[in-house]
Amino acid sequence: xxxxxxxxGQGSRLGVLTAKVAKPAVAFGGKxxxxxxxxxxxxxxxxxxxxxxxxxxPLRLNAHIGIGIxxxxxxxxxxxxxxxxxxxxxxxxxxxxxxxxxxxxxxYMESYNPDYVLIxxxxxxxxxxxEVMLDFHKANNADVTIxxxxxxxxxxxxxxxxxxxxxxxxxEFEEKPANPxxxxxxxxxxxxxxxxxxxALIKMSDQSNCDFGKHIIPYCHDKECRMYAYEYNGYxxxxxxxxxxxxxxxxxxxxxxxxxxYEEFWRIYTKSDALPPQxxxxxxxxxxxxxxxxxxxxxxxxxxxxxxxxxxxxxAVIRDSIIMKDSVIxxxxxxxxxxxxxxxTIGDDVExxxxxxxxxxxxxxxxxxxxxxxGEGSVVPNGVKIGKNVxxxxxxxxxxxxxxxxxxxxxxxxxxxxR
Length: 419
What we know:
Blueprint lengths: L1 E5 L20 E2 L3 E2 L2 H9 L4 E5 L5 H7 L13 E5 L14 H6 L2 H7 L3 E6 L2 E3 L3 H10 L4 E7 L9 E5 L5 E6 L8 E10 H10 L8 H11 L4 E5 L4 E3 L3 H10 L27 E2 L4 E3 L2 E2 L4 E2 L2 E3 L2 E2 L4 E2 L4 E3 L2 E2 L4 E2 L4 E3 L1 E3 L4 E2 L4 E2 L19 E3 L4 E2 L4 E2 L3 E4 L11 E2 L4 E3 L6
Parallel strand pairs: 1-4, 1-6, 4-5, 8-12, 14-17, 15-18, 16-19, 17-20, 18-21, 19-22, 20-23, 21-24, 22-25, 23-26, 24-27, 25-28, 26-29, 27-30, 28-31, 30-32, 31-33
Antiparallel strand pairs: 2-3, 6-11, 7-13, 8-11, 9-10
């Protein structure tokens, strides 16, 4: 079995966090990136040939994956291959849908002539043994197996929903139904027999924005392929929104975390830089937090996830927040319930996440939950106060904060920093 990992998405619901980086390359849990989880699942499951399909802002992702050394995927045969869109003799086009992206890489898959192809999404947090799923696929003599999990009925319309018989055979499939008849949701993880996948991709290739949920699965169902639902009941988190991304990080710092990053028998691998250990000053206070290597902590940190190389100056107090790689938090700054991206500089005497909640004037569907979101490479000047549901991206100056205050629901987003 070979794996095809879809990692080309922008992740627009993460707002300014993905203005300069693809969603699978967004940091998670301090030193990891989101794509580390499916890649680690692959090697832990014995899948050693992985094609990673990139498109949107691929630079960070390409540099992170490299030749796959951290995941033991630097192989002479197989290993990891980054697959961006490319120009062909007849035409040149971007990947326009999940299935279209796979279709454009038929030659790559053909070169391995696998028995089975595993289709994965690069933007979920979970641990799954794909070998167990493959055994289930073989035992049922299936053509297609879809990994599924029960979701609350009120959320079911966000997913592809499958209906099954008593043997887990799929009888019906509905993509994001307005009135769902069941709550067994597709996780976007599929195992196909290679011949079945190849035929479906070729037959449906003329569909615009060809997609697995909308086109390939219904095509296979109409052709009466043997389709089964593999029910998964472990931890699985779609970190596609700022609130779910923040919650998933916060769950890591529970005394007994719901999702354990440190299990010996199912390790999560990542590209690690050679960094010195954390330095925590004798006057600092750190409580219930993850602190990455190379950090210098002189202030106070509570219930937070701090990435590698972060500096938190004297008098600063961080609560319920995520601060990513190489950011600097100034002296006497108070930060509450915020997500701060990489290489951000927050000045001295700043107060962030204060006051009453107001709906975001930029996009209330993205910026909600009382969070403050600061995009990569941004600068926040000394002495300003920032409310809730606020987005900031770019190098900002004191005069852009009326009376030194950015009220709840307001935003400062410089041109080119958000799409």
